[in-house]
Amino acid sequence: MAIKSPFTGRVKSISEHPEPFFRFATLGPGISVELTSHNIIAPFDGTLLQVKNAGKEYILQAKNGLKVLLNLSFSSVEEHINHTNIAKLNGSKISQGERLAYFDLRELSSPMLGTLCVLNSQHLGPLYYSLSQVTAGVDTLLTVTKK
User: Fold this and answer.
1) pLDDT score of 18
2) What is the pLDDT of residue 55?
3) Which residue in 33, 126, 131, 141 is a FRET match for 10, CA 20 to 30 A apart?
4) What pLDDT, on a 0 to 100 scale, did the predictor assign at position 48?
5) Residue 123, φ and ψ in degrees, nearest 5
6) Got the DSSP string for the chain?
7) Where would one find coiled-coil regions in this protein (predicted)?
8) How far apart are the two ends of the chain, measured CA to CA in Å?
């Protein structure tokens, strides 16, 4: 399954994530993107199960059962966003390419990091990524394989 990128920006290995929780794949394997765009886009058709942490975490489930976490974090602990627009709420059906949220990144002094983690990866094979730069809703961020 090809997962379209929910983010626009520069792709970074999850092993470079500043938070150990993600860096060591505690929740599952994934990939990070240093954001250059304000929009977070649905990576596939499915359901938005939960919006958490003031709109900085989204748990999504694809129609085939794949569950992912989209997490937004800052490189500086003091950073926060004042202008957020969450387009979808818990339990909403989502379509690939549909906007989930908008954040005003111009308020930030350092880049925001978007992370996609596969939550139920125990029944999957390796995950692949090949691009160093992605555009939300256009480019494939991860390819998920079966065991």
Assistant:
1) 87
2) 76
3) 126
4) 94
5) -105, 15
6) -EEEPSS-EEEEEGGG-SSHHHHTTSS--EEEEEE-SSEEE--SSEEEEEEEGGGTEEEEEETTS-EEEEEEEESSTT---S-EEE---TT-EE-TT-EEEEE-GGG-SS-EEEEEEETTGGGEEEEE---SEE-TTTSEEEEEEE-
7) none
8) 12
Neighbours of 65 (CB within 10 A): 9
Residue 116 corresponds to which tokens in the numbers above?
């996609």
pLDDT by residue, tens only, the chain of 147 residues:
899 999 999 999 989 888 888 888 888 899 999 999 888 999 999 999 999 887 788 999 999 999 999 998 876 555 556 556 677 677 889 999 999 988 877 777 777 889 999 999 888 888 899 899 999 999 999 998 887
Taking the CA atoms of 84, 90, 92 and 93 in sequence, report the sign of the dihedral they define.
positive
Residue 133 to residue 147: CA distance in whole angstroms: 28
Say which amino acid occupies 54. A
